[in-house]
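yo

u said u wanted the structure for the complex thing, so here. seqs first:
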Amino acid sequence: MSWKRMAAIMAVFYAVVGILPLFVGDMRFVMHILIMCLIWAVVASCWDVIMGFAGIFSFGQVAFFVAGAYCSAMLAYHLHIPPVWTILIAGCFTGVLGVLVGLPCLKLAGPYVALVTFGVHMTLTPLLRGKIGIAMGSGGATGLLTIPPIQLFGWTFSSEHLVPFFYLTFAVTIICSAIILIIIKSFWGTAFLALKDSEEFATSLGVNAFKYKLMVFAITSFITGVIGAFYGHYVGMLSTRMLNLDLFCTLMVMLVVGGIGQFPGAILGAFITVTVNELLAPLGMYRPLIMGALVAALVLLLPEGVIGLIRSIGSMWRQNDPQTIPSS
Amino acid sequence: MLKASHITKKFGQLVAVNDLSFHVEKGEIYGIAGPNGAGKSTLFNLITGNYPYEGKIEFDGKDISGFPPHRIAKAGIARTFQIPHIFPSLTVEETVGVGSRFGAPGGLDRKHVREVLRFVGLDSERTTPTGHLNLLGKKNLMIGAALATKPRMLMLDEPMAGSNSKEIMSLMDLIRRINVELGVTIIIIEHFMKVLAELTKNLLIIESGKMVCCDAPECVTSNPKVIECYLGEAYAECS
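structre next:
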């Protein structure tokens, strides 16, 4: 897909999302869902960059998200550093963490990378709940309950007033999406794709596999950490429950729904998945069942996700359009 | 131009390349042949830095032993693979662009990319996804991407494998043009003696990682040791 079409899809989509608060601004529940959609859209996009574009099966995305959230929250809570700074520090922290996790993964093939990165995810719960975590100020099993809200230019953005917070999240998400789009369409993105398709051929043409693989780890974990930190200051409390499997699975569903390697599909996938997940809430315990069935059906019917569907509708429409049929 | 001295590569107990030394002159087409499993492709992988090895390889007087593959590419050695490697996610022009962007000194050169595409005959398929090309197209593309790195030496690993006689003619013509028009030194691994006899000036025969002989093609083909390693002792005695 050309970058113009990617940007066009994103622009139309974000324009629609951007005016939604005019209609639902007084419904707290809906506004909260919209904010969460925006946050998950960034996480899913990052996962798409590392998995769909670079072809690295990193399962550490939720871990980077939680690490970023905890890092920023602890700095702001214990050291009273303004959240705007702690969010950036948290991003740098998870970026470095991403490189450290990425280093052992360079020599590993597909499924083993998944094991190593998921191992990082698994160690995070006992680390944060255990003595080391408590000593660092993670709050142990209780978690952190009073994380200070974000303050910017004298304004306080918190979950008290959801409309301003929505627009702050909106701006952050657009910036992150734009960065991701630029990376994908720059020569970095080409290097990621080339390394995914054939590392041997790519390196024989001069692509530095070491550099670009670490770069993708650094970039995706930086952005994920930033948005994780942002999330922490939004909800105001953190616990290790986020590291449970359900969130991980929901994120994967977002990616599958949107289409892996079909950016900006992951953004659409995040919105669809979060919304459907909330709509299915009355089903109670049957919700995961229905969700799973939907995903299975979707994978079979739309292997390229919603972006694949949009593309095939687009090409069908072009074929039926008499103006584009050659006159011969 | 390329000087290999006493290269040895062991995979566990197996000695894939055994104390091999050879010299490739600037501007020539140098052939490498040998029975299956003789260590020809391994030798290529050693030169391009895919594995560590014992011994020393010099390129243009510069020691390149121990360089990783991407630095070898930047140093001016390009290669192709026996099984066509392509990037299914990219188009023809983007694939050649990868070579230009990452391998050529000075980075992406769009004009050069277009020239290379014309040179290998893929100019009309610039926007085609690489997966849609036929076998000859994929081979031409692989050579094109290699040429985009502006190499001084090109190493071709069995470029004729799986091609029919018409495709072989077209590839031979392309290889000759790369050598003559672009002035690129070429090392070619090939099984077709006819191809080697027509293209190369010097031919290195290896078996079990060891050099059997190295001479002009017409001398090599009548060498009893070569006949022995290909056809067995009985034939060697007959000749």
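The first strand of chain A starts at residue 150 and ends at 152. Chain A has 15 helices and two strands.
cya
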